[in-house]
Amino acid sequence: MTKKEIFINATFKDNAIWRQILGICSALAVTNLMLNSLIMGLGVIFTLAMAGMTISFIRAWTPRSVRMMVQVLIIAAYVIIVDIFLKANMPVISKQLGPYVGLIITNCILMGRAEAFASQNKVMDSLVDGIGSGIGYTMVLLLISFIRELFGFGSIFGFRIMGDWWTAWSIMVMAPSAFFILAMLIWIINTYYYKVKA
Amino acid sequence: MKDSFWFPIVFMLINVVLFTGILAVMYRYSEVKIETYETASYQQKILGTMAAKIAEVTEQSPEEIIAAYPSSFEKYVQKLEPKDFEREVYKAVVDDQVVAYCFEIKGNGLWGSMRALVSTSTDFKTILDFAIVNQQETPGLGARIEEKWFLEQFQNRLFVVNPESNDDVTQSYEFIAETQTPVTDRQLKRVTGATITSDSVIKMLRAEFNYIYDYVRSNEL
Amino acid sequence: MEISAFVLFWAAIFTGNILLTYFLGMCSYLSISKEIESAFGLGIAVAFVLIVTSALNWLVYYYILFPFGIVYLQYIVFIIVIAAFVQFLELVIERYTPALYYSLGIFLPLITVNCAILGVGLFMIIRKYSFIQTLAFSAGSGIGWLLAILMLAGIRRKLKEKMVPAGLRGAGISLIITGIMALGFIGFSGIVQIQ
């Protein structure tokens, strides 16, 4: 597979959320505001790329019996490194990212891609796959949060666009609404992208 | 080699040492920078909670006082160290006259602990202002307790209503939806989708006020 | 905290269900809910890992992290304890019940990052549970998770596949069912507040 194919695969064909159904917890938790989704997405893209590369690099030496511990350790270490770096050098951004540290470590996309791709493929391929999966994930998060923020708060990225006449839908702010929106999204994708027929 | 008994253990150990080593070194080098920044933002928050009161007495605007940090902090704010009192406490002094106190309070939220600052009038009964120092609630849900409209609900609120009571000097509050308008002074707006976090804030304030008020009834700060 | 272990156990199943009120542990829940048998297998595995690792993490926290003042390493230590235990479990299952091993597939490693397990670990620390309370709470959470996945698998079996639009079959309809169940569980939340 060429790098381009790997990228397209990771972003669209095997999209982490709508195809592999991974990373749902965070997709529910952070998608009521677009800004939160963007920050979460960037964190995940970075960690996926770096952890993917590292895991792929040491794959030849990693014994099967401890691979999970090693993968988790590498993922957690990268997330915490980013956290410390931002805290020291970009405190304003760090304040935004801080609460996501736990969410990124337990995001199953990271472990899923490490296990399914990085532990069996070349270093550069894993980097491309990591970035692709991350972008695919971020894209879906932004799409869901666009709908939730628009109806739940009447705003986009915090800028109010609906007038005062707009009554916010509280259900859109709460987590269950994300289930329904995500289900609709999967329905549309299955019908028009994968052309699933009865 | 990969299948021997010792190799996996040694391999895991090398990884643990390597990565925790990197973390420890990074942490050590960044510690000072992080601390400096955190102290500054903490002091700015203390100043911020008492700025309105200082401004009222000195006939400035609160924004001017906040903008004049750090000199304004040194000029007006003093740290207190009362005996056997287990909270950080600061006072704002203008012309040798105490105008407000600021307490650091602690409590638990949904996911982790919360630290907040609350400034009170000199009789310790009214909340002047309230600010969150740190919390670990869900971004977009519970974390919205840091939003202005939520915190402003506590400004100039008489919080100690039963000063004589031995069990609870505060009163209970009732939460209403974010979109409603309170009709009595016992109603507060809750963050939509974050009932537990909103409850935790009130619980923390009530518990801490009981502690503080109990102390100041029999001791000097 | 004075809540009795008994109340905590029941509350963790119903009023504060780890999956349906806190939305933790979604990924494996959605993927392994097609058949009741494998859902049951995974549910038992999650519950088992949850109870054992919560107990282990409680001991690690109060006897190692806390006395040595390295509480800030909590995340990384907790998740390594969980990973180590799952890894151990994987080797055992692979050896003794290969059938279960193949049906769980990639989701056995994913138990490690099942956020329900780390979530319970963080809850027990922040709510200052005693060891007994932790056992009750993690047992309740594990059973609550098992209950949720069994309900979903049961509903999906009863649901005649033909009645669901083609594109919505599988993950889509599971999400909708879960959303409705979650809304239903909000109704329980008024009974006991454990927090």
Q: What can you tell me about this protein's structure?
A:
- The complex is a heterotrimer of chains A (198), B (221) and C (195).
- By secondary structure, chain A is mainly alpha-helical.
- Chain A has helices at 3-13, 24-29, 34-57, 67-89, 91-97, 101-105, 108-118, 123-153, 170-173, 176-192; strands at 155-156, 159-160.
- Chain A has a two-stranded antiparallel sheet.
- In chain A, helix 4 (67-89) packs across helix 5.
- Chain A is globular, with a radius of gyration of 18 Å.
- By secondary structure, chain B is α+β, with helices and mostly antiparallel strands.
- Chain B has one domain.
- In chain B, strands 1-2-3-4-5-6 form a six-stranded antiparallel sheet. In chain B, strands 7-8 form a two-stranded parallel ribbon.
- The model of chain B has no long low-confidence stretch (mean pLDDT 87).
- Chain C has 195 residues and is mainly alpha-helical.
- Chain C has helices spanning 5-13, 26-31, 36-68, 74-96, 98-104, 107-112, 115-126, 131-158, 171-186.
- The model of chain C has no long low-confidence stretch (mean pLDDT 84).
- Chains A and C meet through helix 2, helix 4, helix 6, helix 7 and helix 10 of A and helix 2, helix 4, helix 6, helix 7 and helix 9 of C.
Observed structural traits:
heterotrimer; A: 198 residues; mainly alpha; two-stranded antiparallel sheet; 2 strands; globular; B: 221 residues; alpha+beta; 6-stranded antiparallel sheet; two-stranded parallel sheet; 5 helices
Overview in brief:
The complex is a heterotrimer of chains A (198), B (221) and C (195). Chain B is built from five helices and eight strands, in the order αααβββββαβββα.
What is the count of helical runs of chain C? Answer: 9
Estimate the strand proportion of chain C. under 5%
Helix and strand content put the structural class of chain C at: mainly alpha
The tally of structural domains of chain C comes to 1
Bulk shape of chain C: globular
Please provide the count of β strands of chain C: 0
Largest sheet of chain A: 2 strands, antiparallel
Low-confidence stretches of chain C: none
Number of DSSP-assigned strands of chain A = 2
Characterize the biggest β-sheet of chain C.
none
Uncertain segments of chain A of ≥5 residues (pLDDT<50)? none
Q: Domains counted in the coordinates of chain A: how many? A: 1
What is the chain-wise order of helices and strands of chain A? HHHHHHHHEEHH
For the termini of chain C, the CA-CA separation is 9 Å
